Amino acid sequence: MPPATTTPQPVLTAHGISKRYGSRVAVETLDLELAEGELYGLLGPNGAGKTTSIHMLSTLVRPDRGTIRVAGYDVLSQPVQVRAQIGLVFQDSALDRTLSAWENLLFCGQLYNMESAHIKQNIRSCLQLFKLWERRHEPVANLSGGMRRALDIARGVLHRPRVLFLDEPTTGLDVLNRRAIWNFLEQLRQTGLTLLLSTHYLEEARNCNRVAFMREGRIIGSGEPGALIHALGDHVLEIDTPTPAEHARRLGSTLGTPIRLDNRLLFAVRSDQADLGALQRNLREEVHSLQLRRPDLNDVYTWINCP
Amino acid sequence: MIPWRAIRAIISRDLTRMLRQRGRLLSSMIRPMIWLLIIGTGFGTVLEQFGRGSYQQFMVPGILCMVLLFGSVLASLSLVYDKESGVMRMLVIAPFPHYWIILTRILGAAVVGLCHALLLIVILAAIGYLGIPHSIPLLIIGLITTALLSAALGALIAVYSRTLENFAVVMNLFIFPTFFLSGALYPVDHLPPLLQWITRGNPFSYGVDLLKHAINPGLPPALAPDFSIGLDLTLLILWTLVALTVSCLRFSRPVALERLAARLATRR
Ligand SMILES: Nc1ncnc2c1ncn2[C@@H]1O[C@H](COP(=O)(O)OP(=O)(O)OP(=O)(O)O)[C@@H](O)[C@H]1O
Ligand SMILES: [Mg+2]
Question: How far apart are CA A120 and CA A111, in angstroms?
Fold first, then answer.
C-alpha cells in the first residue's frame, strides 16, 4: 500500500476577519492561509490595514467578525496559548532603552517562562548571528538604529516561535543591515519558522514566496511574486511624453490600454508585440524618453492599483 | 496559572531601575526628613503640652507611609509611561493574560515603595527618631499592606488616564490630598466633621493608623491611633482588592487593548 500523502496542516488560517473603527473600515473580510515555513508578504500603502491585520492575527485586536487559528489554537478563545507560539516585531522598537541588550533579552526570555540556561544559550546564538555579542552589555540606547532593529528581531524569535509577525521590519535600515536581517530570517525559515511580513518596500517582497496587495482594508491581488510578474507580460514599455493622452490613443490599438502616471505611460507588452526599433523611429521626436524593461513587483502593484 | 518567572523578571527590572537611579532614591528621602525635622519641630514646640518630642514621634508612622505613597504610586504610574515605551510591547505580546501586566506592575511598585520605606527606617533609626517598634510583625504587615494599597491606587490612576504628561497634576490632585487628609499629620478625631469624613473615606488613613498601632500605641490619648487594628486591616485589604480589580478589568477591556495596540503600533 502506498503511504498516505498528507497535505501539511496550515499553521495559520484566517477566515473573513473584519475590523471597523467607528465607521472607518480598517480591514474587510480578510482570508489568509499560511503553510509552515512560508514567507508571506502583506503589501500596501499607509493606512491599508496591514498593522491592524497583524494585530488581529496576534491576539492584540479583536476582530468584529471572522475566525483565526494559529498553531492549532483559536485566537479569540485561547489568546495566551497563541501568544506562546508566536513572535511579533512591532513597527517600533520593543526594548527597554535603559537596559543592555543582554538584559533586554533575558527579561524577554523570562516573560516566556524559559529556563535560564535555555535563555542564555538562545541569547548567545541570536547575538552572535547579529554580530552584537561584543556589545551585549552596553545600554540599548548606545546602539545604532540598525543594531536596535536587529536586537528587536532577536527578541521576537528568542523563544523560538512557530509564526513570526514582522511589521515593517527593515524601515529605516541601510542596505547592509537589511541584507543581514534577511539572511538571518532566511536561516530561521529553514528551521520551519513561518513569517508574515508587512512592508511597503516592494524589493523586499521579492524574498516572499507569496504576497498579497492590500488597499483600504481589502486584499486586491495575491499570488507568487514570479507568477504575478509573469502574468503581467514580458516587458514594460515606459514612455515619458508631453502629450500622454494622444500617445495612449495612438499606441493603444497595438499595445493595449496603458497605465497613465502624470506624463508617463506604461504598457505591459509581450515579446512578440514589442518592436522597440520601430517605435523609437516613430516616436523619437515626440517623447522625452522611451524605455523597455523587465516588469517587477512595482509594476504588478501599479497595475493592481490602477486597473 | 501564575507566571512566576515573569513576575520575578518584572520586579527585578523595577529594582534594577531603582538602583540605577540612586540619586532619585536618595532625594526621595529628603521630603520626609523636611517634614519630620522642620515642620515637625515647628509644630512640636506648639504642641509641647503632650510632652517634649511627642509630636515628632507621632509623625513617624505618617512619614513612613508618605514615602510608601510617593514611592509606590509613582512607580505604578510608570505604567502610563510604559504604555508609550518598548517594554509594554514586550508585555502585551507575552504569553500570560493581560491583567498580569497590572498585577505585576502593582507588585513591582509595592516592592519599590517598601525599599524606600526600609531606607527611611534605617535613617530614622540612625538619627534616633525610631527605636525598637512596639510590634515588629504589625509594622511589617502595615508596611506591606500600605505599599500594596498605594501601588494599586497608582495603577487605578494609570489605567484611567490616557496620557499623563504632568506629574504635577497627579501630585497636586491625588498624592498631596491623600497624604494631608490621612491622619498622618494630625489625629483624625480633632478634625472638623467634613474633613473627618473625608479622612475616614480615605483608604490611606488606615495604613497610617496601622503603623501608629505598630510604632506608637503608647502616645498620649490625643495622639493615639484612631481606629482599631481589625478595621485598619479590613479596609486596607478591601480597598486594595477593589482598586486592583477595577484596574485589571479596565485594562483588559478589548477596547482598552485596542487603543493600547494602536499606540504601540507606531511612535506618534
Ligand atoms: N485604533 C484605531 N482607531 C481608529 N482608527 C484606526 C485605529 N487603528 C487603525 N485605524 C485606521 O485603520 C486603517 C488601517 O490602519 P493600519 O494601521 O492597519 O494601516 P497600515 O497598513 O499598517 O499603515 P502604515 O503603513 O501606515 O503602518 C487606517 O485608516 C487607520 O487610520
Ligand atoms: Mg502599520
Answer: 14
Q: Compute, in angstroms, the gap from residue A47 CA to the centroid of ligand 1.
A: 5
Q: Is A159 exposed, middle or buried (0-12, 13-18, 19+ CB in 10 A)?
A: buried
- Identity (one letter) of the amino acid at A160? R
Distance of CA B221 to the CA centre of its chain: 27
Chain B environment of A103 (Cβ under 8 Å): 16
* Residues of chain B contacting residue A91, judged by C-beta atoms under 8 Å apart: 265-266
The SS3 call for residue A131 is coil
Tens digit of each residue's pLDDT (9 = 90 or more) over A102-161 = 999 999 999 999 999 999 999 998 898 888 899 999 999 999 888 888 899 999 999 999
- The hierarchical CATH code for the domain A12-223 is 3.40.50.300
pLDDT class of B254 with cuts at 50, 70, 90: confident
Contact B90 A51 (CB under 8 A): no
pLDDT of residue A307: 58
Residue B133 reports pLDDT greater than 70: yes
Q: Is A250 exposed, middle or buried (0-12, 13-18, 19+ CB in 10 A)?
A: middle
What is the domain partition of chain B in residue ranges? 22-267
Q: State pTM to two decimals.
A: 0.89
Residue A52 Cα to ligand 1 midpoint, Å, equals 6
| Burial per residue of B24-50, b for 16 or more beta-carbon CB atoms within 10 angstroms, e otherwise | ebeebbeebbebbeeebeebbeebeeb
Order of strands across the sheet that contains A289-293: A259-261, A264-269, A235-240, A289-293
d(CA A136, CA A147): 11
- For the domain spanning A232-305, the CATH number is 3.30.70
Q: What percent of chain B has pLDDT over 90?
A: 54
Q: According to the model, what pLDDT value does residue B165 have?
A: 57
